[in-house]
């Protein structure tokens, strides 16, 4: 008796911890990334900005006011200034009753270098943890963000093509097509994700800008224009959605067959997907 061939099983949706497990611990701190690793996240997301002395640090906002006890723009502060600040105590304990504030390294400013060390340590145990790095406001620095980023990835040997059948340990994301173009030109092996807040009329047919290989629509696009996700898939692109925190949004992403979910709540999302 002959059987119809079953379609190849799809790999599970990748769960990426947005700024670490940022619902449970202060975003972009070692505490948040360690929690995401403990929760079982497949990958970690981080934003990177350049300090006044040319170091890449993981901070989302232009200024440090919201997430630390200091004030001022990251670009106007040196790493030593940032190292003197506390990036943990702003997080409301009532909002995160499970999180016990921790002193020192766990809540101080996180350099990209330190995060790469952490990812390298975890990968050395055999767990294929990945990192999704977002370049913030790269246009302001005329290529310096990408240059510094690529320099660090090379130092950690994270910029080389992945062996056949394995995923790249790092991908670079940006709202800036120019930033992705720079990355692609200098390091063609690195996957690049074009982040979208809305569907630009130029890209309505599911195309991506030159330099981008993966589509990164916001959850608002997924909810309001699910047909666009189908177009992106038809155009052959993988789709990584941010920021997916609510169970009904996870459900919609699963229905649409997206390849990755970027979430502040990796533990809950993994549980919903039956992976905990
Ligand atoms: O993962 C993409 C997402 O982080 C983009 O938005 O503002 O959280 O960096 P934002
Ligand atoms: Ca981000």
UniProtKB/TrEMBL annotation:
One of its GO terms (molecular function) is glycerophosphodiester phosphodiesterase activity. Keywords: Hydrolase. Gene3D superfamilies: Phosphatidylinositol (PI) phosphodiesterase. Its EC number is 3.1.4.46. Residues 13-273 form the GP-PDE domain. This is Glycerophosphoryl diester phosphodiesterase. It comes from Streptomyces clavifer.
């Amino acid at each position: 008796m002959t059987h119809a061939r079953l379609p190849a099983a799809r790999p599970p949706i990748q769960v990426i911890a947005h700024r670490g497990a940022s619902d449970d611990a202060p975003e972009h701190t070692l505490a948040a990334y360690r929690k995401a690793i403990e929760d079982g996240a497949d990958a970690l997301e981080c934003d990177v900005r350049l300090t006044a002395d040319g170091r890449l640090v993981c901070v989302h906002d232009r200024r440090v006011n919201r997430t630390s006890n200091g004030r001022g723009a990251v670009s106007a502060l040196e790493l030593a200034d940032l190292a003197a600040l506390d990036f943990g105590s702003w997080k409301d304990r009532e909002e995160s009753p499970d999180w016990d504030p921790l002193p020192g390294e766990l809540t101080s400013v996180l350099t990209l270098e330190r995060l790469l060390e952490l990812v390298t340590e975890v990968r050395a145990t055999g767990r294929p943890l990945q990192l999704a790095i977002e370049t913030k406001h790269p246009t302001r620095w005329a290529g310096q963000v990408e240059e510094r980023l690529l320099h660090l990835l090379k130092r950690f040997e994270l910029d080389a093509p992945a062996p056949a059948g394995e995923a790249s340990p790092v991908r670079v994301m940006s709202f800036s097509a120019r930033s992705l173009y720079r990355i692609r030109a200098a390091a063609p092996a690195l996957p690049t994700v074009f982040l979208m807040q809305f569907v630009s009329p130029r890209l309505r047919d599911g195309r991506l800008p030159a330099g981008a290989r993966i589509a990164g629509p916001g959850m608002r696009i997924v909810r309001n224009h699910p047909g666009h996700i189908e177009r992106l898939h038809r155009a052959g692109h993988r789709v990584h959605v941010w920021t997916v925190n609510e169970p009904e949004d996870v459900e919609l992403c699963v229905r649409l067959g997206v390849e990755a979910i970027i979430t502040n709540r990796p533990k809950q999302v993994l549980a919903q997907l039956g992976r905990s």
